[in-house]
């Protein structure tokens, strides 16, 4: 079976499989017993409650005490469904809880329970620094009553602050900051410099976002490299004046671009070289990367420019992706395109994917509003099952069927008309757009139509809490990029709920999606902003046949002349199916890319773990000194025991860290070029392993050889420092996350093409 046929088979299976969830009946049986202890708990004074909390050892006790602590500390009495969620987290599940159902308090009770059950310390992993700080401070009164300490970490935290936060029973931290701390701890030369304790239990907030959408994102610790050169920056000037159609062509899916013969001739004339000569390979690569940045990446869609820097936009959340950068020179190319100085990428000293980092926790659980749709992936990649927690009050939101228009212009006109109609009645409207540019264009159109609105996008995401809090006010119109992970409830009548009854009488908040996203989960997150806790509400998505999702994944399945009304509204069941199927194919593409990326990461993660174990022995024992005594007894017998241990440790750790960085650089080069071997009918993954495994096998002997050579060639005294032997570590280090290359690898594009063919064949 060829690769294309295998991929088709996987896609069909992906599209057919329903998600399965766990049975909540065993946990539901505990609820009456928990409720029966309410009077007993309320009779305790605070000191007695704290004393009782220290002795809890069962789900029943944990939930009863947690409920009482929340009542006293927050004036909130958790509902039964929140206790079901907490018990699901305690049993190692991903709890799906609708927006507004109290996941933050649910997680706090579960964190307390994990500590009492001997699974502490607990790290609550969030999607950003704001939520880490907010939730830790918000839940602190509950933890205090339960006898636990709580801390939080953000990007600005000092090493001392980080060490103190991680020393608490429960620590709230974004997954990226936790991963960066892990990487930094992997390079310490003194145990006392570590900030993070041994990993035990992770409660993952927005679990589908972190464990699926960001799972393959590498977290990177980089160091300065003297004399870095940037050929891409120079190449950007060469392509700036090129024109589409004349000098280059863009593929229909917008993911690849190629020079025309005229364009290639123009660039070569400016350079005065033949780009395809063997000695000009680096220049050819730089020019191609610059062309990708020039033709395919768009300001206010893929990135924004703020304060003199390029900031990437997270397409799943519609906000700035903090400390994220594109790989393979693409970041520098975009910076050059915008006339900005290149930011240093540096030498990679350590890296770990989000999925691999979370996998280091012996116990993992999580919560989100949208888990069922990725239940298969959570099971495949993490061995996690989904527990669907029912809402405390049934949802009465009215979800209308999609309104599909023939053209984007007709859709945009209908969108403004619908918002005007709602606004005239005073009904609050939340509009979810697909990107920053669209949000600003819609806002301009609304203002021209006399409809005032507030815009929330990546350019002002620091104001998101205050903007979202008022989105349910009478007459409010809020235009926002994606709502996933925003972390703030929309209350009818505004933050003070002063007009709640008035808004409820207008059928509550109306959510409008300006187009379908590549993921149903993102759409569901947007829908979920209406109908919170039994509130009235409504939602609808407006789609056009010119939307990117439909054009990329369902163009061949849309009938040539679909039935439609005079205003362009399509009334054709085949088109309805095509739009739905396009979204499923897009999800399948992303799933397959995730699986493929992880297959390459597995061997690197195995090697990282093996080397980390060796490094731990070097750091915490005298194994390096014993090796020197064995191999070079004459020189090593001459030294003081403490000096020998310090010298041996410093030398061995230096060479281990340097060779691992070199190994990562080598594997990165192999990974970039390995797909070309598919042209020779070789399996790229096999070829990657064929290069990676021998290279790592040679690593340990080389570490020992270099350690011995440095020891032999160096004279030592009590004041010896590593730089005397030129064991110089980077003068500066920094951290960043590697954003997916939006154009993917050659294999990624093959997977996408299979998805498009599936859409054309109408696979179900």
Please give a handful of descriptors for the protein shown.
single chain; 764 residues; alpha/beta; Rossmann fold; Pre-protein croslinking domain of SecA; 7-stranded parallel beta sheet; 31 helices; globular; disordered N terminus
Give the tally of β-strands.
23
Task: Tell me about the largest β-sheet.
Answer: 7 strands, parallel
Derived from helix and strand composition plus strand pairing, the structural class reads: alpha/beta
Give me the number of helical elements: 31
Strand portion? 5-15%
Quaternary state, please?
single chain
Would you state the CATH class of the largest domain? Alpha Beta
What is the CATH superfamily classification of the largest domain? P-loop containing nucleotide triphosphate hydrolases
Roughly what is the average pLDDT, rounded to an integer?
86
Distance between the termini: 21 Å
The fold-level CATH name of the largest domain is Rossmann fold
What level of helicity do the residues show? 40-55%
Name the strands of the widest sheet in spatial order.
3-4-2-5-14-1-15
Summed up, the domain count is 4
Low-pLDDT ranges: 1-19, 749-764
- Give the name of the CATH architecture of the largest domain: 3-Layer(aba) Sandwich
The best one-word shape is globular
Catalytic activity: ATP + H2O + cellular proteinSide 1 = ADP + phosphate + cellular proteinSide 2
InterPro entries: Helicase_ATP-bd, Helicase_C-like, P-loop_NTPase, SecA, SecA_Actinobact-type, SecA_CS, SecA_DEAD, SecA_motor_DEAD
Protein name: Protein translocase subunit SecA
Subunit structure: Monomer and homodimer. Part of the essential Sec protein translocation apparatus which comprises SecA, SecYEG and auxiliary proteins SecDF. Other proteins may also be involved.
């Amino acid at each position: 079976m060829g690769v294309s046929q295998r991929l088709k088979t996987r896609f069909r299976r992906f599209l057919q499989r329903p998600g399965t969830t766990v049975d909540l009946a065993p946990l539901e049986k505990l609820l009456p017993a928990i409720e029966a202890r309410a009077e007993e708990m309320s009779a305790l004074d605070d000191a007695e409650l704290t004393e009782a909390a220290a002795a809890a050892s069962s789900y029943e006790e944990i939930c009863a005490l947690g409920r009482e602590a929340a009542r006293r500390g927050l004036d909130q009495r958790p509902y039964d469904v929140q206790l079901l969620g907490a018990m699901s987290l305690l049993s190692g599940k991903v709890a799906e809880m609708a927006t507004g159902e109290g996941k933050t308090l649910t997680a706090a009770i579960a964190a307390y329970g994990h500590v009492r059950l001997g699974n502490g310390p607990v790290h609550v992993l969030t999607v950003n620094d704001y939520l880490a700080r907010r939730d830790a401070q918000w839940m602190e009164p509950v933890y205090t009553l339960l006898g636990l300490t709580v801390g939080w970490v953000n990007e600005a935290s000092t090493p001392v602050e980080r060490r103190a936060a991680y020393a608490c029973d429960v620590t709230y931290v974004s997954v990226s900051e936790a991963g960066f701390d892990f990487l930094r701890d992997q390079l310490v030369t003194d145990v006392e410099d570590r900030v993070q304790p041994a990993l035990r239990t992770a409660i993952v907030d927005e679990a589908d976002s972190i464990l699926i959408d960001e799972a393959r994102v590498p977290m990177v610790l980089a160091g300065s490299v003297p004399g870095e050169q940037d050929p891409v920056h120079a190449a950007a000037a060469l392509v700036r004046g090129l024109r589409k159609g004349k000098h280059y062509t863009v593929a229909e899916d917008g993911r690849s671009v190629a020079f025309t013969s005229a364009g290639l001739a123009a660039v070569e004339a400016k350079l005065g070289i033949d780009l395809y000569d063997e000695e000009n390979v680096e220049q050819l690569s730089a020019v191609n990367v610059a062309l990708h940045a020039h033709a395919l990446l768009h300001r206010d869609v893929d990135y924004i420019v703020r304060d003199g820097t390029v900031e990437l936009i997270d397409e799943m959340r519609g906000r700035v992706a903090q400390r994220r950068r594109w790989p393979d020179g693409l970041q520098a190319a975009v910076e050059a395109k915008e006339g900005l100085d290149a930011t240093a990428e540096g030498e990679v000293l350590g890296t770990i994917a989000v999925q691999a980092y979370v996998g280091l926790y012996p116990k993992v659980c999580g919560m989100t509003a949208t888990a069922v749709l990725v239940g298969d992936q959570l099971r495949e990649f993490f061995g996690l099952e989904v527990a669907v927690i029912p809402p405390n009050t049934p949802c009465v939101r009215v979800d209308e069927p999609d309104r599909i228009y023939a053209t984007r212009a007709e859709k945009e006109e209908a969108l403004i008309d619908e918002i005007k109609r709602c606004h005239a009645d005073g009904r609050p409207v939340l509009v979810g757009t697909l990107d920053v540019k669209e949000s600003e264009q819609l806002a301009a159109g609304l203002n021209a139509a006399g409809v005032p609105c507030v815009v929330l996008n990546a350019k002002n995401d620091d104001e998101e809490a205050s903007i979202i809090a008022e989105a349910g006010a009478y007459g409010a119109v809020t235009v926002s990029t994606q709502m996933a992970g925003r972390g703030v409830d929309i209350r009818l009548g505004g933050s003070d709920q002063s007009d709640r009854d008035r808004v409820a009488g207008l059928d509550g908040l109306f959510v409008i999606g300006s187009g379908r996203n590549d993921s149903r989960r993102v759409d569901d997150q947007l829908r979920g902003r209406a109908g919170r806790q039994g509130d009235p509400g409504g939602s609808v998505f407006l789609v056009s046949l010119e939307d990117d999702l439909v054009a990329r994944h369902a163009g061949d399945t849309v009938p040539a002349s679909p039935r439609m009304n005079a205003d362009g509204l399509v009334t054709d069941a085949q088109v309805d199916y095509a739009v739905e199927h396009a979204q499923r194919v897009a999800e399948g593409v992303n799933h397959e890319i995730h699986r493929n990326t992880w297959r390459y990461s597995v061997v690197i993660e195995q090697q990282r773990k093996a080397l980390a174990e060796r490094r731990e022995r070097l750091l915490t024992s005298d194994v390096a000194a014993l090796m020197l005594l064995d191999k070079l007894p004459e020189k090593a017998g001459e030294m003081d025991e403490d000096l020998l241990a310090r010298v041996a440790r410093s030398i061995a750790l230096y060479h281990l860290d340097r060779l691992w960085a070199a190994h990562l650089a080598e594997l990165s080069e192999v990974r970039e070029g390995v797909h070309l071997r598919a042209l020779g009918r070789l399996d790229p993954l096999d070829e990657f392993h064929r290069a990676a495994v021998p290279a790592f096998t040679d690593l340990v002997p080389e570490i020992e050889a270099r350690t011995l050579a440095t020891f032999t060639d160096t004279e030592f005294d009590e004041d010896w420092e590593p730089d005397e032997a030129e064991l110089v570590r980077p003068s500066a280090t920094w951290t960043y996350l590697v954003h997916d290359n939006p154009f993917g690898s050659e294999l990624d594009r093959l997977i996408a093409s299979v998805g498009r063919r599936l859409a054309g064949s109408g696979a179900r």
